[in-house]
Design brief:
With 80 residues, the protein is mainly beta. The chain has helices at 17-20, 62-67; strands at residues 2-3, 6-12, 34-44, 47-51, 58-60, 77-78. The protein binds zinc ion. Zinc ion (ZN) binds at residues 23, 25-26, 28, 60-61, 64.
Amino acid sequence: MAYIEYRYRITSTGKSSAQLGPCEICGKYTSEVFYQVEERKYLYNGKTGWTQKNCRDYFGHKECLIEKRRLRANAIPEHA
Ligand SMILES: [Zn+2]
């Protein structure tokens, strides 16, 4: 059985909620909005790669984004 693995990348937008809107997770104002990209590992023809398909990106507090990450332990079994 294969498990879905995710990886994350966080970058600062350099802008505040005044420009980009509140944190998407907690809905509160933040002076620095971060952007998190989620990528899912896939296996195809014996090769592994990363895709953003069926993944969710978020804008918000860095702490909120990190909390929103899926834990490896909670990964859903993947049926090929
Ligand atoms: Zn937040």
